[in-house]
Design a protein that fits this description.
122 residues, alpha+beta, Tetrahydropterin Synthase, Chain A, five-stranded mixed sheet, 2 helices, 36% strand, binds zinc ion
């Protein structure tokens, strides 16, 4: 099996309702997304999927989150925009866009700081 990884950064602000500490106040992060895509077979030119196809899809999804106050966005109206929920959102959206019989989004790793990341898989 092959696993391809693409990285992309974005910046956004959020509030975590119910958080006992500082995260209940508005603050921002420079997030780093690592999207992992897997496939067993390569095509006639030896690729599972062109990195560019993953990058373009990820870019489109992230453009909805970049320089936004995440709590105002539809996916996070009813649930906190935690690293967990953001990584799950990106996983679902990217899966909808690129999964085929041979290609599957296998993991989203979302770095909230350079020292803390969440991984979402199914
Ligand atoms: Zn935060």
């Amino acid at each position: 099996m092959f696993k391809l990884i693409v990285k992309k950064e974005f910046s956004s602000a959020h509030i975590l309702h119910g958080h006992p500490g500082n995260c209940k106040r508005m603050h921002g992060h420079n997030w780093l997304v690592e999207a992992e895509v897997q496939g067993d077979n390569t095509n006639e030119i030896g690729m599972v999927i062109d990195f560019k196809d993953i990058k373009n899809n990820l870019k489109e999804i992230i453009s909805n989150l970049d320089h936004q106050f995440l709590n105002d966005l539809e996916p996070f109206i009813n649930e906190n925009p935690t690293a967990e929920n953001i990584s799950k959102y990106i996983y679902k959206e990217l899966s909808n866009n690129i999964n085929t019989d041979n290609i599957k989004v296998s993991k989203i790793k979302l770095w909230e700081t350079s020292n803390a990341a969440v991984t979402y898989t199914e």
